[in-house]
Specification:
heterodimer; A: mainly beta; six-stranded antiparallel sheet; B: Rossmann fold; 6 helices; GTP-binding (chain B); transport (chain B); protein transport (chain B)
Chain lengths: 123, 203
């Protein structure tokens, strides 16, 4: 399910203040990415490469996503991995199984870390 | 599940020669489905990990050199503020062991914390062609006041243990870290004290 999130589903995962109601996990392994009420839901268009792609397959395939959890301090994450920067973008991955990208961070903005709502598990 | 307060935030470095398996140590820090195909072609820069040791929940920022060591371009900022370091060699490579002194020198030069906790990890013990014996590793570690463990990132032997021992030692070192919240003393973090874990590290 690598599409954008249906809006009625968004209500289930975010509270009145647009913060995450639930814990946020990796989709593939039990790794906890964020604890409740640590991130804010924002609308932002961003192209993320697909999580599954055959190796050596160019060009990079991906999808433009709109719904992201915004975290302002990297130490807010319970567990997360950062890729090396590519064109000033670091991709966020699961810290344990390295599944990703589950989000992104621009090195030009030290106070913004984005986790794609569609690429994590809520619960 | 109730969220326990974070005791402290620690900066941990992983250093050593290229090819000794630093990145896979970082990957195999926790047990999971290891999928070599998944290994990011971009490479991992660093990770934020939450680890509970002796009931104390700590947050770690773990920095891998991400291959920069090949070009000897590790910057002072890489070392700045680090409370712990994991120095890795490959037990099947004498050359990687012989370079440990140079790494310690670099650490001495750039580290900003006097009593930084150091751990020596002999990696790749799953290999058959050992060029460095456990005794040699142990002797080096003793000489330089380091914790020591042999590990295999491939089989995950000793990896979790290495991080836990390192963090435990840091927490036991007064003045090396700061509490991020209220006053919590080491070993009194709560009911979640993990017991019966078989970790053997030698100082």
């Amino acid at each position: 399910m690598d599409s954008n999130f249906p809006s009625e589903k968004l209500e289930e995962i975010c509270d009145d203040e647009c913060q995450n109601k639930t814990r946020i996990f990796c989709q593939r392994c039990p790794s906890l990415v964020l604890s409740p009420k640590q991130a804010k839901l924002v609308k932002k268009e961003f192209f993320l490469p697909n999580m599954f792609q055959k190796n050596d397959h160019t060009p990079i395939e991906g999808v433009t996503l709109n719904d992201f959890w915004l975290v302002t301090n990297m130490m807010t994450f319970d567990n997360v991995g950062f890729s090396k920067a590519v064109d000033n973008i670091m991709y966020l991955i699961c810290a344990d199984c390295e599944m990703g990208p589950i989000g992104w961070h621009s090195i030009d903005d030290k106070k913004a870390y984005y986790i794609a709502v569609a690429r994590v598990k809520h619960g | 599940m109730e969220e326990q307060e974070i005791l402290t935030t620690l900066k941990i470095l992983i250093i050593g020669e290229s090819g000794v398996g630093k990145s896979s140590l970082l990957l195999r820090f926790t047990d999971d489905t290891f999928d070599p195909e998944q290994a990011a072609t971009i490479g991992v820069d660093f990770k934020v990990k939450t680890l509970t040791v002796d009931g104390n929940r700590t947050k770690l920022a773990i920095w891998d050199t991400a291959g920069q060591e090949r070009f000897r371009t590790l910057t002072p900022s890489y070392y700045r503020g680090a409370q712990g370091v994991i120095l890795v060699y490959d037990v099947s490579s004498k050359q990687s062991f012989n370079k440990l002194d140079a790494w310690l020198n670099e650490l001495e030069t750039f580290s900003t914390k006097q009593d930084m906790v150091k751990m020596l990890v002999g990696n790749k013990i799953d290999r058959s062609n050992h060029e460095v014996s456990k005794e040699e590793g142990l002797k080096f570690a003793r000489k330089h006041h380091m914790l020591f463990i042999e590990a295999s990132a491939k089989t995950n032997d000793g990896v979790q243990c290495a991080f836990e021992e390192l963090v435990e030692k840091i927490i036991q070192t007064p003045g090396l870290w700061e509490t991020s919240g209220k006053t919590i003393r080491p070993g009194q973090g709560g009911a979640d004290v993990s017991q019966g874990q078989s970790c053997y590290c030698v100082i």
